[in-house]
Amino acid sequence: YRQRERPSPPHPPLPPPWPPPRAPAPCAMCVHAGLRPSQPRGGGRSCWALALVQLICAASEELVCLQRACLPPDAMQGGGQAQLCYANVGDVESFARCADPAAPHCTRCTTTPPCESKCEAEVYTPLPLGSSCHLDRQCGGDPFAACHLGVCRRTLWVGQRCDPADELSVCLYGLQRCSDGLCEGLATNGICWDGYPDGVDLDCNPGWYCLRSVCVPQLPNGHTCFGEHPSECIRGHRCNLLSRRPRCTAELSLPVGVRASDRLLCSTSHLDPRTRECAVAPADDVGGGDCRSSADCARPDGSLGECRCKSWWQGDGMPGFCELTIPEPQRPSYLEFRGLRAQYCHHGWSDDRCAVEMEETDLLALVVQERGATVDPTAPVPVCARTIMPVTVANGARSLWSPTSAWLWTAVALGATATGPVAAPPPTAA
After folding, report:
1. DSSP state letters, 277-301
2. Boundaries of domain holding 72
3. Dihedral over alpha carbons 280, 285, 290, 292 (to 10 degrees)
4. pLDDT per residue over 203-223, tens digit each?
5. What total of structural domains would you count in the chain?
6. pLDDT per residue over 353-388, tens digit each?
């Protein structure tokens, strides 16, 4: 005899959660929906609608910029006291150049505004390694010097060269020991922590990353990936969620017309927001224009430029400007440093730590100069502020950028520090 199967009684409906969950922001919704590889392009998800939501989100993120001005001469004199050189009242910064050669130094005050700084005879002298300390900034004498357990020591991360006999060096993360001349980290199944302020994968060896508190190997080129961790793929690769099958893809490798979830996967480092396909960057006809948000820096294809605060905004007009856009493939120093970093550095290291470890600080300086190309109409800053805000960027008028003229801007970035403002390169013929 076989007992007849009876349907189970229906479960009572679950009560609604309390408090009710918040709906995600429109920007997060459109980005998430646009990156889901399992969803077709249609289904009510219009490319133009996504572009419209992107503009709305950008418009809602208006810049909040500080006003800056030079201190009047009567405010600089302290009645026999040290000269006032900097003042911050919360939304306005004021500067003055130190006139006394015996007190030429000025720094920003670090207390809650309103605050002020006065000219000083000498800056603070960093403590050598082995000295007693309380703060990291007290220690000097080495690029990796920091205050560790009350003593200035050379703090090294997993994968860095070390000397087990050096009492002033310490391996901070991973197994916290020096083995075979390197700070040793954790490999497969090692218990790690992803809550360090300096990064999430610092306990794991190069080639591993911390996933759910366990070190796991990074995925090689072409391997299926899920995009659940920024370091899921090996160095120099990213997970392309919009390929037919999400896979680890080399950066700057996808040709024009291929769908990508990250612009750095494209050989042009530019994505057409209407199709999410790699494309040639359009002419930058908004560079140097005034803006309040990135929505004011829209390009012909609907992509948005970067709206930055003007370095010397005095409260008149719009506080920001549309920054010059130079794709990564047009930056030779960046490409060289990127290749060396992917080969020799842990993916969790900062650029500064990587450059010092590789002994390539001069190359990193060139990378920083390339990044310094700008069309800020207010640069360079007045003389009164150059003690605190040094002139390290190039300046140009409103520009028409095109891929064929990008090398000119690279030359501008490398040579304009000493010459001051420069003119924009002429637009190329269509």
Report:
1. EE-PPPPB-STT-EESSGGGGB-TT
2. 67-118
3. -30
4. 999 999 999 999 999 999 999
5. 2
6. 999 999 999 999 999 999 888 889 998 899 999 888
Is the residue at 60 inside a domain?
no
Residue found under tokens 């990353």: 209
The continuous run of DSSP H or E covering 217 comes out as strand 214-217
- Alpha-carbon Rg for the chain, nearest whole angstrom, is 27
Q: What's the pLDDT at 141?
A: 86
- Report the run of H or E that residue 355 belongs to, with start and end: helix 351-358
In the sheet that holds 67-70, the strands lie side by side as 67-70, 92-95, 84-88, 115-118
Residue 128 lies in a domain: no
d(CA 413, CA 64): 27
Residue 192 belongs to some domain of the structure: no
CA distance 385 to 387: 6
- Are 103 and 96 a contacting pair, CB within 8 Å? no
The residue to which tokens 């366990």 are assigned: 214
Residue ending a domain, among 86, 102, 118, is 118
Tokens of 174: 């991973």
> Which domain-ending residue is among 118, 151, 186?
118
Q: What percent of the chain has pLDDT over 70?
A: 75
Name residue, tokens 């001005």: 69
Q: How far apart are CA 216 and CA 381, in angstroms?
A: 49
Tokens of 149: 């357990």
- pTM assigned to the model: 0.73
Domain annotation covers residue 191: no
**Whether the Cβ atoms of residue 373 and residue 324 lie closer than 8 Å to each other:** yes
Read off φ and ψ for residue 333, nearest 5 degrees.
Answer: -65, -40
C-alpha 356: how far from chain center: 19
- What is the rounded distance in angstroms from the CA atom of residue 185 to the CA atom of residue 168? 20
How far apart are alpha carbons 362 and 391 in whole angstroms? 19
d(CA 222, CA 253): 12
List helix spans (H) across 19-152.
26-34, 47-60, 73-76
